[in-house]
Amino acid sequence: MLGRKLSLANVALACCVVGLLGFFDLLPLDPSHPHFALSLLSSSRQETPLCEPYSSFGHLSVSPEMHSNRWHPLRESCHSPALMASFIRAAHAAQPPTNKDALSNVQDGEVGPDGRPWEDVEWARNRTLLVLGDSVHRLNVRYFCNMLGEPFHWIPWEHKWSPPEPPTPEPLVDPSTPAGEPLPAAAAAAHGHHPFQNPPHAKRAANIEDHMAHFCYIPGLDFLIMQVFHYGMDEENYWVHKPSYTPPSTYEDRLSMLTVPYMAKATSELGPIGARLASAPELILLSSSFWDSARYARIDVETGAPTDSDLTAERLQWYRGRVREVLVNTKRAFPQSSISWVTGHYPSAGDLKLEWFLRGADAKATNQRPSLYLNRLWQIDNAARSAILDPLPANLTRPDADVVRQTRINEWGTLMLGQAKHMFDGMHQALLPGGYLWADMMLYEMRHAVLHGQR
Hints:
The chain is an alpha/beta fold and 455 residues long. It is 36% helix and 9% strand. It has helices at 2-24, 34-37, 83-94, 135-148, 185-190, 251-269, 290-303, 313-333, 374-389, 398-406, 412-415, 431-451, and strands at 58-60, 71-73, 128-133, 152-155, 213-218, 223-229, 283-286, 338-342, 408-410. It is globular. Residues 1-48, 173-206 and 360-369 have low confidence and may be disordered.
């Protein structure tokens, strides 16, 4: 009788294991991963999920009161820590801000703005964040600096941290065109687009600064943020004819020729002790979506294809593989760093014009220009998630597979869904709630990187 009971128990246990494996098939088996606790895309249930606030179902509070713009999980036992308010408080207590009219000041008291004890942010001292992304995340870094009352610095080619300006490469043949023919620029002109109106070495637009690197330093906590722009997952020097283009083109070239030299100089010089910790950068926030969607849209315009159709399976499979390559190459450049992939946000339908990525923002309000449609941005986001969370291909080496598995997903873009009326312009988020939410979430990821690393 006892044996029969044990047998039935074993069967029940096996069924439970099979059920759990089915649920976790799309999730990494790493309890430190934000999607271990609860996936925003999952309808499955866990009785006692871990508290990962930014991967939990909840709502975003939007308020003119700066420190009230926070994500609130619906589960009462889980809350998002008020890290940005605590960070500002600690930084200003240690050293007054450079700008006495800092955007954000914290009223000291026994508890923080969330009614809870202040968070200990000593783990942030002498830490370094590297942000690799487009103008959306450049603006988030600028907002962070403004809230702290510290300057947001541009790194021109003449800066002491900058390497020499590399030559502008020639655009490669786009394999999506028939028989490997060059991209038909005449077709773009027929649609009102003139992406090749300036030769690569012509005088660039005044907004060249936008595609360069920037940094921000918070002396009170010896905290450094380095932001380096990139042109998405492109491998073909696709954007060299854009007036504001700055070389090099591909993500890997910008990583090796710009980012690594910037970080080597900055980490060896900046700080009261003259150097950053050997672990710098402790965290890398990596993102890509708008430039990728724009590249597909431009190809479609030039070949007469619709720009609002769903992306093909071939494009999405290529993108999945490319995301994994970029993650692996980033880890090779900075093996000591934790990496978080930041999800893209969704501007209101029709507001994000392709013209942003062809001639620049001067024509962003032209209604005749095709938009970057939300269905494609959603598909690109899903392809990136799949690259990280789905079972990995067998041809990945064990070290490379570990890099992908250890990558966390930062849900900033997902949590901004529905906030289109709180925009700075048709593409970029406003400070509230977007910039403040990004800061809270960035510090949450940095704390995880410092205290837990990638495990």
